[in-house]
Amino acid sequence: MTEAKPEVIAPLTAAALIAQQVGGNAIRDGLFLSLFAVQSLPYFMAGAALLAIVAAQLSGRLLTRFGPARIVPSLFATNAALFLVEWVLFDGQPRASAVLLYLHTSVLGAIAISSFWSLLNERFDPHSAKPLMARVAGAASFGALVGGVSAERVTALLPRGALLPMLGLVGGVAVAGALAVGSGTPARHSHVADESDRSSGWVHVRHQPLLQDLALVIALAAMLATLVDYLLKAEAVAYFGKGPHLVRFFGLLYSATSLIAVLIQASFGRLALGRLDHDPIAQRAELAVDGCFGQRAFLL
Questions:
Q1: pLDDT profile of the chain (300 residues), mean per 10
Q2: H helical segments located in the chain
Q3: How many C-alpha atoms does 164 have within 13 Å on its Cβ side?
Q4: How far apart are CA 262 and CA 269, in angstroms?
Q5: Right CATH number for 4-185+206-297 from 3.40.250.10, 3.40.630.30, 1.10.3210.10, 1.20.1250.20?
Q6: Could you say which DSSP state residue 199 is in?
Q7: Is residue 58 exposed (0-12), middle (13-18) or buried (19+ Cβ within 10 Å)?
Q8: pLDDT score of 116
């Protein structure tokens, strides 16, 4: 692989991954709210959150032990395959398909995006990654626009459920991209974890006041976002009713909100760290900021 290829493949992979996630979120919400009462949504939100805690712990350990280059393509492949499973279930068991789709996109979709940023962080050094991250973020915002608008158009023009296999095919593109980007990552050899590796992340939180404050802020922000998300979806059901109109609405909504989030990131994220431009630690922090904002922009 030449040096130029990762600079092209990484943004294309980001665009495919985010397009898949935004399109998946649109059909997830539209299908779920068409088949279930909106009052049941908080229970599914809570269930997905609990499942995400377990899944995040597991994926974190796998990434630490085997490295993103080996784990990320597998996560992407599983993500793509589940869309095809949900498509197969859709005609005969639409409610089962809707439940699986809700949990799948809410949990595995978020982990896939996070793991992709881990892959980029390990594949590239901080100095060379800075201009690349700008291109990746731009491609991700374009992918969000394409994913949301495509979800609206496919739902309007094709039979119900046709979006699911298309999302699976887009996931295949993301798998190929992850394999190509990860091929230049140094091999990681498994090792026996020492005591610090085995310690739970909660142990570090209990002993670090800064982490405690950060965890509190994140928890409060997540609670507020969940409440706003529920109110918005309840109003959408009341206004549009049940059916394909919901998928079309959420497709356009997620396109707009994703683009707004990326613009906020581009305006304030780099400005906050600009004065520490020559500090290697700050450069790593900037990659983390890019990853956190980029991930959060496309998850809801």
A1: 67 94 93 92 91 90 90 95 96 94 93 90 73 82 90 90 94 93 65 48 68 79 86 90 89 85 66 52 47 48
A2: 4-35, 41-66, 68-92, 94-103, 109-123, 126-157, 163-182, 195-198, 201-207, 209-240, 244-264, 270-273, 280-297
A3: 25
A4: 10
A5: 1.20.1250.20
A6: S
A7: exposed
A8: 93
State how far the Cα of 242 lies from the Cα of 231, in Å rounded to an integer: 16
Look at residue 98 in the predicted model and tell me its pLDDT: 95
How far is residue 131 from each of residues 11, 117, 145, 209, 222, measured CA to CA in Å?
Answer: 11, 15, 22, 33, 30
Q: Is 33 helix (H, G, I), strand (E, B) or coil?
A: helix
Q: Please, what's the b/e burial string for 31-51 (b: 16 or more CB within 10 A of its CB; e: otherwise)?
A: bbbbebebeebeebeeebeee
Do the Cβ atoms of 167 and 81 come closer than 8 Å? no
CA 158 from centroid of its chain's CA atoms? 26
Q: What CA–CA distance (Å, rounded) separates 168 from 105?
A: 12
Indicate the domain borders of the chain.
4-185+206-297
Q: What is the pLDDT of residue 269?
A: 54
| Structural contact between residues 133 and 5, judged by C-beta atoms closer than 8 angstroms | no
Q: Which amino acid is residue 170, in one-letter code?
A: V
Nearest to 260 by CA among 127, 176, 183, 145: 145
List Cβ neighbours of 269 (8 Å cut-off, separation of 6 or more): 286, 289, 290, 293
> Residue with structure tokens 């739970």?
200
From 13, 266, 21, select the one nearest 120 (Cα to Cα).
Answer: 13
Q: Quick one: which of 145, 128, 182, 134 has its CA closest to 11?
A: 134
Dist CA 154 CA 27 (whole Å): 10
Give yes or no for a contact between 280 and 126, defined as CB atoms under 8 angstroms apart: yes
